[in-house]
Amino acid sequence: MNYYFAPMEGVTLYPLRNVHREVFGKGVDKYYTPFLTAAHTHHFKNREKKDVLPECNRAFDDYPRQIVPQIMAGCSEDFIWAAKEISKLGYEEVNLNLGCPAPTVVNRRKGAGLLQDPEYLDKMLSEIFAAGPFPAISLKTRLGFSDEAEADRLMEIYAKYPISELTIHARVREDFYAGAPRIEAFRRSVSIYRESGGKAPVCYNGNVDSVPALQKLMQEISPDEPSRGQERSEGGVSSIMIGRGLLANPALVRQLKGGEQLKPSELKEYLGKLYEGYATYIPEDRNVIFKMLEHWAYLHVHFKNCDRNLKNIRKSRSKDEYLAAVNRIFAECNFS
Ligand SMILES: Cc1cc2nc3c(=O)[nH]c(=O)nc-3n(C[C@H](O)[C@H](O)[C@H](O)COP(=O)(O)O)c2cc1C
Fold it and tell me: pLDDT tens, 255-267?
């Protein structure tokens, strides 16, 4: 099984990717960047471009294969331009975002907005694949816009194209990120994709945040024992993409592979390096602290009875105050 760090806007940027790689090693097979917008003007924003520059991804010894830039585009022309720009940097794969649920994105017929019009999406993909040669193109989709039955048509469309991987976030757009993933609809979608001739590896995404969660998922997507002589197929899934689970437990992939639990010393090292990473491009302490609070929103689960300590972290105004509050939470609260 391969494990991927999911793209997360504003979060899985190069400081996080580098620090995660440095502290937790090579367990994660691929890191997806947050989406880069392929604007009609055919210019990336500077901060988006910076995120994929080789020199910003210094912790990776083979960044073109270990990092996958994701593109948000509403038409084939913009996607083709963006994919070509990114391939000039050496990347071997680019990923098309077919899942972002934000109204501002959807209303421009991008992200999950493309799922509302399967015939348009089909045309867009046919134009993209007619335009090669390219880096490999993978897709990250949801099961539909408002109804999981929409997945049937979407899978038939995806099966027509030589995509390099199909990641399915097991929700529809209207679920946003809430509620239990739709495992049965996911299973059905993988079957339809295969029956329609789809050959790409399939990656599952949604709520994998612990070893028991992964075990339960595996039971649900491949409940039958393999018949004699057949390999267990793991429900036709060869990869798992994880977002929030890795933010809450950066050692999660190690654990899923049978390794050690997160240790407080490595979490402290991770947090320290992350602060320094953000501070290289965010000028004010307070703004660096805001960035760190996005991580604390997930990480506090490791500390027992930590409300007061967490409040002190949130209230800190300077680097010294922040570091003192972080030292206190490690010293005063039980870690698990
Ligand atoms: C804050 C946030 C930002 C996200 N940004 C992106 C993004 O840029 N591109 C994308 O395809 N998905 C994005 N997602 C969705 C995640 O990649 C993932 O599909 C979702 O969180 C479900 O996986 P999880 O349960 O493992 O977190 C984002 C999710 C969150 C919570």
Answer: 999 999 999 999 9
Q: Which CATH number fits domain 2-256: 1.20.210.10, 3.40.50.150, 2.60.120.620, 3.20.20.70?
A: 3.20.20.70
Closest atom of ligand 1 to CA, residue 208? 26
Domain boundaries, the chain: 2-256, 264-332
Q: pLDDT for 203-224, tens place per residue?
A: 999 999 999 999 999 999 987 6
Cβ neighbours for 52, distance < 8 A, ≥ 6 positions apart: 33, 36, 67, 69, 86, 89, 91
**H or E element at residue 205:** strand 202-205
Nearest CA to ligand 1 atom 22: 206
Between the CA of residue 270 and those of 75, 254, 282, 287, 314, what are the distances in Å? 39, 15, 18, 18, 18
Residue 189: pLDDT above 50? yes
Return the bridge partners of 335, or none.
303
- Best probe residue, ligand 1, of 3, 5, 9 (max atoms within 8 Å of C-beta): 9
Check pLDDT > 60 for residue 27: yes
pTM of the model: 0.96
